[in-house]
Amino acid sequence: xxxFDYKRPGTIDEAxxxxxxxxxxxxxxxxxxxxxxxxxxxxxxxxxxSAIESLRGVCPDGxxxxxxxxxxxxxxxxxxxxxxxxxxxxxxxxxxxxxxxxIGGSIANNDPAADYPAAVVGLNAVVxxxxxxxxxxxxxxxxxxxxxxxxxxxxxxxxxKPEAAAYIKFDNPASRYAIVGVMVAKTSSxxxxxxxxxxxxxxxxxxxxxxxxxxxxxxxxxxISVSADGLNSDIHASAEYxxxxxxxxxxxxxxxxxG
Amino acid sequence: MxxxxxxxxxxxxxxxKRFIIGKGRYLDDIxxxxxxxxxxxxxxxxxxxxxxxxxxxxxKAPGIVDILTGPDMEADGIxxxxxxxxxxxxxxxxxxxxxxxxxxxSHVKYVGHQVALVVAETLQQxxxxxxxxxxxxxxxxxxxxxxxxxASDAPQIHDDIPGNLSFDWEIGDRAAAEQAIASAHxxxxxxxxxxxxxxxxxxxxxxxxxxDAGTDEITLYTTSQNPHVHRLVLxxxxxxxxxxxxxxxxxxxGGGFGSKIFIYSEETVCAWATKKLDRPIKWTADRSxxxxxxxxxxxxxxxxxxxxxADGKILGFKVSTKANVGCYxxxxxxxxxxxxxxxxxxxxxxxxxxxxxxxxxxxxTAPVDAYRGxxxxxxxYVVERMIEIGAREMGIDPGEIRKRNFIPPDxxxxxxxxxxxxxxxxxxxxxDKAQAAIDYSGFEARKAESAxxxxxxxxxxxxxxxxxxxxxxxxxxxxxxxxxxxxSAQVRFNPTGSVTVFTGSHSHGQGHETxxxxxxxxxxxxxxxxxxxxxxxxGKVPFGxxxxxSRSLAVGGSAIMKxxxxxxxxxKKIAAHTLEASVEDIEHSGxxxxxxxxxxxxxxxxxxxxxxxxxxxxxxxxPGMDETAFYDPLNFTFPAGTHIAExxxxxxxxxxxILDWVAVDDFGNVINPMIVEGQVHGGLAxxxxxxxxxxxxxxxxxxxxxxxxxxxxxxxxADDLPTFRVETINxxxxxxxxxxxxxxxxxxxxxPAALMNAITNALGKEIDMPATPEKVWRAAQGL
Amino acid sequence: xxxxxxxxxxKQVSADVSSNTLLVxxxxxxxxxxxxxxxxxxxxxxxxxxxxxxxxxxxxTMLAVQAEGxxxxxxxxxxxxxxxxxxxxxxxxxxxxxxxxxxxxxxxxAVDLVNKSDKLDDASIREGLEGxxxxxxxxxxxxxxxxAAAKEMEA
Lengths: 259, 783, 155
Prior knowledge:
The structure holds three protein chains of three kinds. Chain B has 19 helices and 28 strands. Chain B is of the alpha+beta class. In chain B, the strands form seven sheets. Chain B has a seven-stranded mixed β-sheet, with helices on both faces. By secondary structure, chain C is an alpha+beta fold. Chain C has a five-stranded mixed β-sheet with strand order 2-1-5-3-4, with helices on one face.
């Protein structure tokens, strides 16, 4: 690691005041620290958000659930009152990563193979920052890119409770990130199908959403042919294989919901 | 004698205490006063010429001590890294090995190639300074795959080695094998790929050199499976220091699996540099460096033809293999695809004619050398895939075809057409037990049940054999080894009756501190907690050859037995003198020496005490009780067995689940069944890893290692593996005093064939290792 | 250089370290507690697992400064004096280790796994070990060790 300064502000305002082009936010550090260790980044300072109490916690609020940006995956797995969210969080990384990694850190990083983006988009969550709220569909923009502006700090993510939902993930056998992960949800805003791992960034499979809106059955997905165009291809999985997994996992998610 | 701590007992390991409380002492745990840190600058290119190295800015960096390069080593007369086994090609010429300077001098030949050592007061400073070293590389064309390297239009990797060919070796009778194939009822022909692996012992390699200007002695702490071999080579070939001024210590070593046998650049450089700079220097690989620069394993491309008669009896076997040896010949690299491979192609069967030829090719990749099993997994894979495919093609049950071909139990010693003489075995017994354990006859019903759930079920055999207990010095000497492969042991009684055993074997997980103590306790009646096993320090233990090839018990344990014999012989003399009897009348059993036909006796402890307090010894009885023995085995040992794997495949995703695994192994006599079972589990995990998960991939275009971390190189984890059902049968080895055969490699040797036979049985179609979900899915979908 | 203070194995410790010092480096080099190991650089092998405020964490993926004020337990702090933790005893009793290098992290992960789980079977233990890689044992005896220790820890 290169040298850097380390700051641990106590409030969001204080944190915002410390941010500039050469600083980075440190949440759980489960991606940032390995990156720094490999000398792939050289920030002047890290601004650690862990002392800001208001960024932590899982707060049920009527038919929604607000999760503080600094809430760890383990806390979400244990406390989230939306079962699919708890189960998704319990499958991120490993126990030690879940004890440190946070939802805010994960979605801000927007790793194409991360799990949380599928939850945020699939459940139609809203991302709140110190400046504004951002709809799930607008948040994830491209490979490791989000709608966040320079120096903008995620404060929480609010998930509307779905009527029913399931997330099925096919692990990369080595890294245990998602080769493909599919979230299927019946939400107040309709059926949503969000896919992570397969493309440069999480995306909605609208053809499936339409089909499932007509008939929420696995048969409804049977005739959909998922195109491999634009999907990721690497030594672990070709685009064609990922396309297959999207359909297989979506069907399994539907089957799980239908019991 | 089987007691709670004797031979045959599952004694809990004596070495465990320090590991479970965090007091193990691995190399990186050692820090010396005034220690500096070394960081290796490595080639970012697969093949390049070094035009210049400019260290001027880096030498001004904070904390810098020095930066050393290949030309510095050459100037100091440090010799190149060697290969210790000479192979002769078909045409009678010796193998070709390029000069391998420990630090690159003019060219880099693979990504990760060691170019310079940066030494600084802290690791951070060394890494910072390394970034200031300017190296002007001129990229050259590279080649990654052995098939490409041996093609006529391949880039030339070493100027003095035309066609990138190290050797073109053969064994067996070509004409006989071809004749059998030409006239056979059925011939099975296959191309098989043995995938390249990266060993990944959990403790990364490391070295710490410490020079004492007062004594002119260099102490090298290094992660070695064979510290004396390190000392010998570093002294005799690299000229780092005379042998008596070089002490090599391998402290607790966190796994080896072959990868820590070899004499690598890094420890050579650290041993040399500590004296040059007169400062202790520690280098510890980070995992990325391990991936790049540990010797890799396997990497064969093979075409095989197996000829059968109408009953499925094997008539002949012909195997042509191209072996990727990487960019240089590592310490034992030449032996692995030859004498550890071709000689095992007979398997457990009667094969009238065998011919094997192996071309070893250089590529712009890390050196390839022995990895758990070393040559024998590759051989087993070829034999056991071929007979299984032959059975399928001929419509014979795969268990039945093997039984028809097994060497019968009354045929030993059995000479194979590929120079091995099997001493003992009972192959049908192992298979019968394995079939019963897995309920082979119930498989079809289970398969039908899986099919109802849309799943594909498969079952696969591997009836493996290996040659272990490496090895008789005369045999390996005649085959090209530069060393003898005996082992040493010293059994030293202390006056109060406790014992320290010094062994030339090295334990890096195998449990020698327990197994060897059991032997001593059993034979000499010393309580096991009073037996200490000392290993790994050339300053303490007699010259020994180390641990690899499942040799420690068969060879090192036999050396201990031989030293025990000397202790007994001497003790008899002392007892005879003390008890006023003749030596011939002294009987020994489990540490009690008695005069035949009387109740007069002495215990081993009494004799040991007396040996150090020899107040009235006659002139012909030497004081002290400290006996050293060297044991050279009479033959290899031949562990063998049958493994059966049962799998279920999800055709929609290509996921393979291992439902059941039965291993019935014949390891001869077993000293500690608990440890043996643990060794089998570990070997199986590595073999399953090869077949299902692990694959070393270099990008052919860029020459970069794509599987350079655990993010991309898939290590078996707990939830990838089933609960194994392990049994042993015990046909004693006839050629060593313990009757043991060795168990460390069996799982890794046997598992890949069993698992691939099961997977391809389920799929009804061939795929290569590793059987990744995508490959399996494609096969299942007919893509 | 910032000063960092924390409690390690019940003892208050304090040192000046640069911000880029990893927790594992602090533990191994400043405190000389070398039972916590480093086996990879991508946060996967788990040889470095310690407990941070009662939760298992990879000390190679934490800065020492992030542990300011924290309660850290390393393998050296698991036993009560000479009285080994049931997990430590169980690893020896069930041959849950071979070379020993992954063992310390494995034990620390296993203790946290058992502490946090009501009911553990073979499958859930195997899943719970996702963050720890062992190259020697094939995991079977590790799973057995944890099952046995879990019973002991409940009692």
